[in-house]
Amino acid sequence: MQRGHATAGRFRQMLLVVVCTVMLSGCGITNGQLPQRQAASDSQAAYPAGPGSRSAIPSRGRTIVVHIPSFELIALEDGAPVLRSRVIVGRPSTPTPELLSSMSSIRFNPAWMPTPSMISNEGAHYAPRGPNNPLGQLLFELDNDQLIFLHDTNDRSLFSRSNRALSHGCVRV
Fold first, then answer.
1. CA pair distance 53, 157, nearest whole angstrom
2. Distances from the Cα of 173 to the Cαs of 12, 119, 170, in angstroms?
3. Cα separation of 67 and 44, whole Å?
4. Cβ proximity of 8 and 2 under 8 Å
5. Dihedral angle sign, alpha carbons of residues 40, 41, 45, 46
6. What does the angle CA 146 – CA 115 – CA 66 come to, to the nearest 5 degrees?
7. What is the DSSP string of 48-99?
8. How far apart, in Å, do the first and last CA atoms of the chain sit?
9. What does the pLDDT look like over 52-70, one tens digit per residue?
10. Could you tell me the pTM of the whole model?
């Protein structure tokens, strides 16, 4: 599953799992299986994220898995893939971390406030709601302390690239 852009240090940061009660829209219906999914117990399946790392995927309920090396979001219902979507993940200098999180809320047409490092290192500034906002029209807030979210984007052309490691760590859907 390793892609040319992945380095040895990124293997431990290859999977983002979000346990949620809301399915994403705009993804394609799938009839395939989640790659390398292995049964772990009756209530969970283990998904190998890299050497020495495993993330549990519940076999009941709705779950979103972001497979970082393949730039793909997979929505599962009761452990079976039902939707797939291309995503944009963190670039090598700001990788998307391995994370298990619940979705805490959904914000429509959000404003964007860059992180302190984006302000100091890149000159980024606040973006109000609207068509130029990098968060797009939807922000799926995740319960984590790393400021990692799933969100829309204002630049859909990026999804056509083969290497979609382009963000500051968030997952653009």
1. 33
2. 22, 24, 10
3. 17
4. no
5. negative
6. 40
7. EEETTEEEEEESSSEEEEEEGGGTEEEEEETTEEEEEEE-BEE-TTSPPPPE
8. 21
9. 444 567 788 888 999 999 9
10. 0.71
- 68 and 13 Cβ atoms separated by less than 8 Å: yes
* Residue in the block written with tokens 């999804």: 159
State the pLDDT at residue 159. Answer: 95
Helix (H) or strand (E) holding 105: strand 99-108
The stretch 98-124 carries a mean pLDDT of 91
**CA distances to 10, 61, 120 from 50, in Å:** 9, 25, 33
Q: What is the pLDDT of residues 62-105, one digit of tens each?
A: 889 999 999 999 999 998 999 999 999 999 999 999 888 888 89
Q: What Å distances lie between residue 91 and 38, 46, 58, 105, 111, CA to CA?
A: 28, 26, 28, 25, 23
Strands 28-29 and 62-67: unpaired
Specify whether the CB–CB gap between 33 and 116 falls below 8 A: no
Do residues 72 and 86 make contact, with C-beta atoms less than 8 angstroms apart?
Answer: yes
Residue type, 113: M
By the 8 A CB rule, do 76 and 57 touch? yes
Q: How far apart are CA 115 and CA 80, in angstroms?
A: 36
